[in-house]
Amino acid sequence: MKTEIIFLVMLILLLVSSTSACIIQFPQKEYPGNPVFSGTLPSNINGTREAYLYDQILNGNYYLFYDGESDGSGNGGVPVWTIGVANSTNLTLWNDEGRILNVSASGWDDAAVSDARIYNNTAVNGLYYMYYLGCNGVSDGIPATGYQIGLATSSAIDGPYTKYANNPIITNGIDGQFDSDLSYATDVPIKINSTTWGSVEILH
Q1: Which of 2, 15, 40, 66 yields a CA-CA distance of 20 to 30 A from 192?
Q2: H or E segment at 116?
Q3: Per the domain annotation, does 91 fall within a domain?
Q4: pLDDT, tens digit, 9 for 90 and up, residues 72-91
Q5: What's the structural domain count of the chain?
């Protein structure tokens, strides 16, 4: 019995030692060329945020979708957050293509459109699907309330995108429900057909 206990202890120590040896830590360093992207256009001169890197290379380019805060031109002098895109061949030098989805003149997404996620559905109907957040509520001058989820489509990855006529596709719940104030973003998988899966931004 004593021999069995000693063997068991040695086995546990061996397993612990082997597991520890497999843990590899990589030092993380900030890229010395940061920031790699800053807004310089009227549509994003006041700031950029919510970067989303599309996970496929198209025509030799990577595509980075972002939110840009405008200087107010074209929106009645009021700065708004809208969606833009930039392209790059090396992930460090970016060519800003500017705004590809603007706020609506009125309605559920007239204060901000943001946080784009793209699904490539070109194999089915030749279109890219953009799922995005929109709101018409402002708190302390910042679009921050009443977010809902909309859809826009384009035949090209970098737009222009056309909003779906029946937006928003996911609306806020009634008073007392968990989503009564906003529908916000989490990537979840969805089944497109028997062989194709994608992901969209769904409320939480």
Answers
A1: 66
A2: strand 112-121
A3: yes
A4: 776 677 788 999 999 999 99
A5: 1
